[in-house]
């Protein structure tokens, strides 16, 4: 048994398809299938029920795969410990980001992260919060950049910046030329929102419910860009994170105005496993990101 065999097994559990698992591991399908059979023979148990339509894991297969994930995570931790003492700002770093942060923050930070840490190889993954938290806990990701929520207390966190939410409305709306609107003025309005699962939705709804603002139940968007286009089409109003608003505050058919008293906002943080040995790396990254976002807010 070797670590590569465990990687094949874990990939198969994730993909539930031999060809896809083989592609993920950069080997041929016969190679992966043969090594899994070899592992079964070595352990003396059947790990997988092979059918023509699907890959089904046996109870033994599920238990051994869970342990294999832990072994691989610990092995990676050993490598990270060694790297921390030699070159803390080098090697691979796997970062998860939520969809309402990644596309808007990355263009600002990637060039400077590459400039400050040229030996660091960044791998970026985008998913919703609950998926990212599981991947971080399982050791599949090194850190996350996302909006802070109460359920993240079991992880270590480094605050990055506070991001206001801006009101987006059609350019021909009566408020389109105003510079700001109070949250109370939105009472009775129904805003367009993202679909369930997006933490931005939950945070925006928290502010809206407190102010007597409702949700348009006829439509839920899969992305901020879909929301933006719905606003441009005159279908309603919404709240957008500031980084998602173009620098010139003007998109085709959409106007943006500040909301005050109070100003809706969210805290963006860098999340990591509490005892991660890569904490020095995260500290340095957080400093760079803070400086970038602070300069952009001036």
From TrEMBL:
Entry GO MF terms: DNA binding
UniProt cross-references to SUPFAM superfamilies, sorted A to Z: Periplasmic binding protein-like II (SSF53850), Winged helix' DNA-binding domain (SSF46785)
Family to which the UniProt record says this protein belongs: Belongs to the LysR transcriptional regulatory family.
Protein name: DNA-binding transcriptional regulator OxyR
Assigned keywords, A-Z: Activator, DNA-binding, Transcription, Transcription regulation
NCBIfam families tied to this protein: PRK11151.1
Source species, domain of life: Bacteria
Ranges where the HTH lysR-type domain occurs: 1-58
